[in-house]
Fold this protein.
Amino acid sequence: MRIHLSRPHMSGHEEARVAEAFASNFVAPIGPQLDAFEAAVAAYLGGSVHCVALSSGSAALHLALRIAGVGPGDEVWVSSMTFAGGVFPVTYLGATPRFFDLSPDSWTIDTACLAKELAKAAKEGRLPKAIVPTDLYGQSVDLDALEALARHHGVRLVVDSAESLGAVFRNGRKAGTGGDAAILSFNGNKIITSSGGGMLVTRHESWAEEARFLASQARDPAPHYAHSTFGYNYRLSNICAAIGLGQMEVLESRVARRRAIFARYKSALARPGLAFMPEPSGQRATRWLTTLTIDTGQTGTSREDIRRMLLDHQIEARPLWKPMHMQPLYAGAPYHGAGVDERLFAHGLCLPSGSDMTEAQQDEVIARIETLLDARRPPPIFRAFHRPKRASDRAGAMGKV
Ligand SMILES: *Cc1c(COP(=O)(O)O)cnc(C)c1O
């Protein structure tokens, strides 16, 4: 049986919610399950936010950026190491992305680098319309630093929290509550799923109203169809919302399970040359996916050796996201950083992390990796002489756990 990276994991509560939706014939993108799903997410996030359920996380980002006023000729500054759906909406709007590197201490956007570039851009009168940092693999960005920067420069902040529902930033503040708006995804591979869906979360009531308007084809109040602007068909189906509602009941236990999977990998694979994604103190990552880097000098093996060996045994593992500034689509786009993300991509691996994975399955993944590492272990004399060349390597992707 194949071991997957991250599969949908139903709780058993979803079918009853879907049956309720059918019984009342609310099978369109409107209905009590949709309202209840939005209310459940808002309550989970702490209550002081407005939630709009949408057909995908990408749709949520598209709407958030449009509401932020992003249009042709504008710049949007984004984390480079992210999924395409976290950048494409910039392109939908005719704007241009400017890419930023990660900090090796958190694997989220390097706020010092961002601060420096914002100050420079402010002086030169070319500030971006919005900033979109990504909560990577279940880890919240530094909301305090980013909100202070956005406020200082009068720039809109939209946080891509598609991978981090269930994470805690600091002092109980949840990921997904940041900036002018945050976006969530309920795609099938995320920590919980509505079979496909997304959400725009915002503290501005006016943004939520506008998102609802734009997501249902921008219909002006009139008995006929009247449009003063163009919209989209982006609302979530009430049926999908019913699934999401059932999943919200088990979100906390899913976080606990993913964290337990991470802890097990980390203790079983505690060896020189393997470094797991760090977790800044005071924060709680969801560990949506367990991610680590493999130092070839120290282990005698590479990310690709491990990934291909696992695949031969029907075990799905994946390289970390390829940074968007390295994608052909965005060749030549401006990029700021020291290449931390490039090294994470070169050496980083996501291990199977689904909350429905059994301990026996995880043991198999661990045993297969251990066998390969033991076989490839370089002799001690070689290990002693092989050192990372650059200081940034030592501090970042390669060395620190
Ligand atoms: C999944 C994801 C998205 C997009 O969500 P969809 O629901 O698949 O459109 C955006 N950004 C990041 C970082 C993601 O992981």
Q: What stands out?
A: The chain is about 40% helix and 10% strand. The chain has two domains: 14-250, 252-396. The pocket of pyridoxal-5'-phosphate is lined by residues 56-58, 82-83, 85-86, 134, 160, 162-163, 185, 187, 198 (CB under 6 Å).
